[in-house]
Amino acid sequence: MFIKKSRILSVLLVLLVFCIFVLLLVPFNLHSMSSAKTQHTDQPLIIAHRGASGYAPENTLAAIDLAMKSDAQMIEIDVHLSKDGHVIVIHDKTVDRTTNGSGAIKEMTLDELQQLDAGSWFDEKFAGERLPTLQEVMKRINGEKKLLIEIKSGIKAYPGIDRKVAEAVLEANALDWCIVQSFDTPTLKQINDQWPQITLHKLIVFKFRWLPLAFDGGITSFSNKKYDFAEAINPHYRFVNRRFVRNRQNAGLKVNVWGGKAPDSYEKIRHIPVDGWITDFPNLH
Predict the structure, then answer these.
(1) Does position 38 have pLDDT exceeding 60, yes or no?
(2) 172 assigned to some structural domain
(3) Which residue of 12, 18, 45, 205 sits 20 to 30 Å from the alpha carbon of 73, by its own alpha carbon?
(4) What is the CATH number for 85?
């Protein structure tokens, strides 16, 4: 009995320490911080998340087409690498959630991937939507809006994906309307070393309050200088505050926030002067 109680107390102590750590060091954006006196009136750049993914199956041409008809000035997509070296537009590392198939993208060929139905899971009216390639999405947008390409997992999981994405941008003469972002810093640094003309954004979840550390899937050192190769630092919207945004902007960096899954999520950060809002629900024309 004593041992059991000791284990329970140990677990409770760990949870207590964790809660204190989170409350003290992780910045939370509380909607109650907003007031009529602190409203930020400038409108941020609207970035359609995975296309207009609130209205159509994410990362499909249907979602891209709706985003093209929306008020979004930029469209965000996610990319992985197929078994035979094609850059595939999809968020997850497997096809299980957003298609009628199963398996890891890196273990499937382009032909196998494009035989899958990537639309029915969202709504039957989108049945038959395929997983597009990066080149197909770029051809659809054709510079009419900007494109934000997120490399998932990075070069460790997908050796050569940096080159494939860079070559697609360069071959399309799309340097002025394509941007590459990732959580994976080594991928971004490698692109910057090899193709410094490509605009880059660094994704994080949050920066710890008072500490030069950030969480981007792991805990890593953080400073403006460390990411001086990037145009923007893009955190989750629930973990930004005015100080974080102003510190980045004063250093010449932009801040685009992501994670708002509801149409009214922006209301929670309207008081914060972010540069861009990555949303599932751009306004449709």
Answers:
(1) no
(2) yes
(3) 205
(4) 3.20.20.190
